[in-house]
Design goal:
The chain has 2 domains: 147 residues, NAD(P)-binding Rossmann-like Domain (Rossmann fold); 184 residues, Dihydrodipicolinate Reductase, domain 2 (2-Layer Sandwich). Helix content is 35%, strand content 22%. The protein has an 8-stranded mixed sheet.
Length: 371
């Protein structure tokens, strides 16, 4: 039994809150102590997921009252993407550590406001990107850091998923610029946008096209392509879609002058280097066992909570050790900046350089779709 048990409050009791509860259930030093929702039925559904023996969470319909509870030390923000800012600021001001579901927010200015509030109030901040915690992606990152690819030449990612019209119609916020912040890029492919920049390094410039091709009555894109130039000289591509029936495995590929590797979903499916190493054998054996399970490709609930669990475990360790979490607010901001640059390029028809300038981001306001 852990010496210290962290109490979690969850803000927003929609689908993604389920993953947070399941993750917290599996952490010996954490329990859900409070839920905030304006929908009593949703709150009751999430409360029922709390593991027996970890207590019964209090349910609140007033956020300041929940944040005043000393039993709440960490707050998970699980509201729609464009509604992360205010509860995150309130939690920081209340002295609570803050975990925000991806994206951190839907503009870089809003991301910065959350980051600055957490820093000024001396609380920790994490952005949820569980894909970084899978063994396959950790192995890939390690190989890059060890220089096994030689000169990096190409880095690309594809998230060719399918979402039904009913998915977008199921919530008034889905498919809107104000609350979703974007479409296939900001909601689904953002995990792989984050992975690609984490693996390949900073992007220098990009050019992009987006379109809405397979869905009606949504403001955002369901299909997007961006061509990238990284600061290290390599080139790359981002493909994102919720228009690709029936939904394919998401993919990251890294290529260089002495190696190539591919991760599909959370499995390594290609691992070739000019200079093999003994540890490659275990990865090759894992390739043979790869399941090909297309988690999330057509079903938003078809993903695992284990990445959330591992990331929340790191977050609690960071609090106890007085270090930044592996994916803090500044790390979480990077994918938002890249996606906003893609939208700015699609709207303006120009190559956009990064870091994204305020002038370039002002091309696209949160409520304005790219043309």
């Amino acid at each position: 039994m852990a010496d210290r048990i962290f109490g979690f409050g969850i803000v927003g009791c929609g689908m993604i809150a389920e993953f947070h509860v399941r993750a917290i259930n599996e952490l010996p030093n954490a329990r859900v102590t409070a839920l905030y929702s304006r929908n009593p039925d949703n709150a009751a559904r999430i409360a029922a997921l709390v593991e027996t023996g970890k207590g019964t969470p209090e349910v609140f319909d007033d956020l300041p009252t929940m944040l005043a509870r000393p039993t709440v030390e960490v707050v998970c923000i699980c509201t729609p993407s464009g509604a992360h800012l205010q509860p995150a600021l309130a939690a920081a001001q209340a002295g609570k550590h803050v975990v925000v579901e991806k994206p951190l927010e839907i503009t870089t200015a809003r991301c910065d406001a959350i980051i600055n509030a957490c820093e000024s109030h001396g609380v920790q901040l994490a952005t949820i990107f569980p894909s970084r915690f899978s063994q396959a992606n950790r192995d890939l990152k390690r190989a890059i850091d060890q220089g096994r690819f030689g000169t990096l030449t190409l880095g690309d990612t594809a998230v060719k998923w399918w979402r039904t019209q009913a998915y977008y119609d199921s919530g008034g916020w889905r498919g809107t610029w104000a609350l979703d912040g974007g479409g296939a890029l900001m909601n689904q492919a953002i995990h792989n946008v984050d992975l690609l920049q984490w693996l390949m390094g900073d992007i220098e410039s990009l050019s992009a096209q987006v379109a809405t091709l397979a869905h009606d009555h949504i403001e955002v894109e369901d299909t997007a392509v961006a061509a990238l130039r990284f600061r290290n000289g390599a080139l790359g591509v981002i493909q994102a879609a919720t228009s690709a029936w029936p939904g394919l495995l998401k993919r990251v590929e890294i290529h260089g002058s002495s190696g190539s590797a591919r991760v599909e979903q959370d499995d390594v499916t290609l691992w070739n280097f000019a200079e093999p190493r003994p540890e490659d054998q275990a990865i090759q054996e894992a390739i043979a066992r790869a399941s090909g399970f297309a988690a999330g490709a057509s079903d938003p609930k078809g993903i695992s909570h284990l990445g959330h669990r591992d990331q929340l475990a790191d977050f609690l360790a960071a609090i106890e050790q007085g270090r930044p979490p592996l994916i803090d607010g500044r790390e979480g901001r990077k994918a938002v900046e890249i996606i906003r640059a893609i939208y700015a390029s699609a709207r303006s028809g120009r190559v956009i350089e990064l870091p994204l300038s305020a002038a370039d981001e002002s091309i696209l306001r949160p409520t304005d779709p790219p043309e």
